[in-house]
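Is this the right way to post structure tokens for a design question? Let me know if I should format differently. Anyway, here goes:
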């Protein structure tokens, strides 16, 4: 495959930023917090952050943080890869090992244990195969339910966190497509795509609030893509080319975010909040060096916490928001660290050994 000159020669090893680990853990725990309300039947009591007429639950804000940081880190990874094939391998190694364990564990272990139907009926139901195929591939969206699993609970989904993963994949595809044109070599390339997504959101594709926080949806060739999440992702991409890091980016981000709250303008929030997030992430405080060396549990926290919370509710261990969060947060964090240590990190190392030039973000 012939690609643009931009990706034929990998760039130098990037600066290590220790702040991203803490930022992403915070984002994952914000998701756990919001789910602690929804999965115990207290969704109406969950905390809400309002910017004008834009109401965001902490969990959705956590998802936004994930997309901003992902846009920043994946854009850097794109610039260091030697080709599209390597870029795809990097992304596969980051997402699918833990996801595969989760999906197969949910279908073949968790489901048969907690289902209210017989084992035979459970495996014969087409819902089981749909859950396995859709969530393992992410090509046709995601499936949320297994037969007889968590029925009668406030939230009947097996894993309500997975809906964002196809959105992430779509963002990777758009990033690679834009990168192949050479636009990402320009400081304004990522910014241009970010502005495009914001315009779609702001001027005609607002579909109202829904169960996922903000329902901004654009359908192209039967592919549903959240323009809001696309805007967050490409805000991170755009910030790669801005020569400000740490406190120099954090302070203007705080100021713009503060103004957004003061005047009630969501558009300013879309601009200022990503600056705040990357300002925190693209820093290297010595206090966080130890956390960076331990590993990044955020992805594991994000994908494992939902079924964990469902199990805690099912067996009466935690049936109200505060106990649910206080139990689920540390347990999910332990699962996240274990996943990183024994699955995610080994997968990344194996890829690097196979192709030494590869750098994973």
């Amino acid at each position: 495959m012939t690609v643009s000159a931009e990706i034929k020669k990998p760039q130098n090893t990037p600066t290590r930023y220790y702040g991203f680990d803490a930022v992403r853990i915070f984002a994952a725990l914000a998701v756990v917090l919001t789910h602690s309300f929804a999965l115990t039947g207290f969704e109406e009591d969950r905390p809400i952050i309002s910017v004008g007429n834009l109401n965001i639950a902490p969990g959705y804000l956590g998802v936004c943080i994930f997309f901003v940081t992902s846009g920043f880190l994946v854009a850097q990874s794109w610039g260091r890869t030697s080709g599209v094939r390597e870029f795809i391998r990097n992304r596969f190694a980051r997402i699918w090992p833990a996801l595969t364990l989760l999906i197969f564990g949910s279908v073949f272990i968790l489901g048969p244990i907690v289902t209210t139907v017989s084992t035979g009926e459970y495996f014969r139901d087409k819902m089981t195969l749909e859950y396995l195929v859709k969530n393992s591939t992410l090509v046709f969206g995601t499936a949320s339910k297994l037969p007889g699993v968590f029925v009668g609970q406030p939230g009947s989904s097996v894993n309500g966190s997975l809906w964002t993963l196809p959105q992430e994949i779509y963002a990777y595809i758009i990033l690679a497509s834009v990168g192949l044109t050479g636009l990402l070599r320009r400081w304004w390339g990522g910014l241009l795509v970010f502005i495009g997504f914001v315009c779609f959101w702001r001027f005609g594709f607002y579909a109202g609030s829904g169960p996922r926080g903000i329902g901004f949806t654009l359908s192209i060739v039967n592919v549903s893509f959240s323009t809001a999440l696309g805007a967050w992702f490409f805000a991170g991409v755009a910030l790669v080319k801005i020569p400000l890091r740490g406190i120099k980016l954090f302070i203007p981000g705080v100021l713009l975010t503060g103004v957004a709250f003061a005047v009630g303008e969501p558009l300013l929030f879309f601009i200022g909040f990503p600056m705040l997030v990357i300002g925190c992430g693209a820093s290297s405080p010595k206090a966080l060096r130890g956390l960076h060396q331990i590993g990044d549990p955020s992805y594991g926290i994000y994908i494992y916490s939902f079924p964990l919370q469902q199990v805690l509710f099912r067996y009466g261990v935690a049936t109200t928001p505060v106990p649910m969060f206080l139990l689920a947060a540390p347990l999910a964090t332990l699962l996240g660290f274990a996943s990183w240590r024994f699955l995610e990190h080994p997968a990344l190392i194996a890829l690097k050994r196979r192709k030494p030039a590869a750098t994973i973000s």
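Format looks fine. Someone answered above. Worth noting: The chain is about 65% helix and 5% strand. The radius of gyration is 20 Å.
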